[in-house]
């Protein structure tokens, strides 16, 4: 007998925190779920630990680290083989879920037009501080976490529409994947969830925020806070997201927005005493000026080298696009954030 909801948990060298993740997901009040754990070629024994300690989970062992997009896709593909599967929930291994997490997500997806549901993520080290309640789009192709680093005083405790969920804890409708495809494997990691949300919205789906779907997140446990690699992925992928999904007038307008953000980030690394500490303890200082500049330049060059591919994907979206440019403009005004409010990497 199949399960209505499949939870795909991506693990890479997560031996020290995956137990909490799995204990909490198996303790959910919502029972019609199957748990799939994709191991991304771990070398710390976590795959063997999951197999031995959680035999009720389906372990999908990959031979190497395929990173987030390709690794998660491997789990989604297995989930979609179950004809009973209606929803796929993606979840980071460095999380602990409240017992009503899955029930809250599924309840918020009751209407057919809701293709994605965003959870409420709080920092595990600071459980009263918000990590995200959804993603807001920006004019330069990037995204900003709604409620980032704010104290959780109930200001987001209302079920409402948001632009996109973060895939660290999100629900996706099966038919959404079947219509617009899975996470873009070329993104490797970061912004793949925002790109998927753009594709789904262009096809007519909406995103709902579920305030009762609460998750505590060990921020950047698998990749250090603002590492040079993370900087590279973000810089490259934001350009591809801009080109693949935004109307051309916004692509042109996004160039100066992007440049202003990069200059602000460089300035922050040049001026002493201007660095803002990471949001959680033990996350590290982030790349130096030289590392940040090098990663940014390499990312730009690789992004520009991939523009032909990005424009090909842009044309492919015409097959299912149901919204006009005026609607997208309303999205950016309603869900987006002004550049002065954007965090600087």
Walk me through the structure:
This protein is of the alpha/beta class and 345 residues long. The protein folds into 2 domains: 5-217, Alpha-Beta Complex (Spore Coat Polysaccharide Biosynthesis Protein SpsA, Chain A); 228-341, no CATH class. Helices cover 39% and strands 20% of the residues. The longest helix has 23 residues, at 248-270. The protein starts with a strand and ends in a 10-residue tail after the last helix.
Descriptive keywords:
ten-stranded mixed beta sheet; alpha/beta; two-stranded antiparallel ribbon; disordered C terminus; 2 domains; 345 residues; Spore Coat Polysaccharide Biosynthesis Protein SpsA, Chain A
Number of helices: 11
| Beginning-to-end CA distance, first to last residue | 47 Å
Helix content class:
25-40%
**CATH topology description of the largest domain:** Spore Coat Polysaccharide Biosynthesis Protein SpsA, Chain A
Radius of gyration: 19 Å
Structural class: alpha/beta
CATH architecture of the largest domain: Alpha-Beta Complex
Task: Spell the H/E element sequence.
Answer: EHEHEHEEHEEEEEEHHEHHHHH
**CATH class identity of the largest domain:** Alpha Beta
Principal-axis shape equals globular
Strand content: 15-25%
What about the largest sheet?
10 strands, mixed
Low-confidence stretches: 272-284, 340-345
The count of β-strands is 12
How many structural domains in the coordinates? 2
Report the mean per-residue pLDDT as an integer. 90
């Amino acid at each position: 007998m199949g399960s209505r909801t499949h939870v795909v948990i991506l693990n890479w060298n997560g031996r020290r925190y995956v137990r909490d993740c799995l204990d909490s997901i198996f303790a959910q009040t919502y029972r019609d779920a199957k748990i799939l754990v994709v191991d991304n070629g771990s070398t710390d024994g976590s795959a063997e630990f999951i197999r031995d300690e959680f035999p009720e989970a389906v372990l999908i062992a990959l031979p190497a680290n395929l990173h987030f997009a390709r690794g998660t896709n491997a789990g989604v593909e297995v989930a979609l083989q179950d004809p009973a599967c209606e929803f796929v929930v993606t979840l980071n291994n460095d999380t602990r879920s409240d017992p009503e997490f899955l029930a809250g997500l599924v309840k918020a997806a009751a209407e057919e037009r809701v293709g994605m549901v965003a959870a409420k993520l709080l920092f595990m080290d600071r459980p009263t501080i918000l990590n995200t309640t959804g993603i807001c789009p920006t004019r330069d192709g990037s995204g900003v976490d709604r409620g980032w680093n704010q104290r959780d005083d109930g200001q987001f405790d209302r079920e409402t529409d948001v632009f996109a969920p973060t895939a660290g804890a999100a629900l996706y409708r099966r038919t959404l994947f079947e219509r617009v495809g899975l996470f873009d494997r070329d993104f490797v990691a970061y912004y793949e969830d925002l790109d998927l949300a753009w594709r789904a919205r262009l096809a007519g789906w909406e995103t709902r925020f579920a305030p009762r779907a609460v998750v505590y997140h060990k921020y950047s446990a698998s990749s250090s806070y603002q590492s040079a690699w993370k900087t590279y992925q973000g810089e490259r992928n934001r350009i591809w997201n801009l080109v693949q999904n935004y109307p051309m007038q916004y692509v042109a307008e996004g160039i100066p927005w992007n440049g202003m953000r990069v200059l602000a980030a460089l300035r922050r690394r040049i001026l002493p005493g201007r660095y803002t500490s990471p949001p959680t303890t033990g996350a590290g200082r982030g790349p130096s000026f030289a590392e940040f500049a090098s990663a940014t330049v390499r990312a730009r060059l690789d992004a520009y080298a991939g523009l032909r591919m990005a424009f090909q994907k842009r044309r492919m979206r015409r097959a299912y696009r149901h919204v006009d440019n005026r609607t997208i403009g309303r999205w950016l005004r309603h869900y987006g954030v002004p550049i002065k409010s954007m965090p600087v990497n």
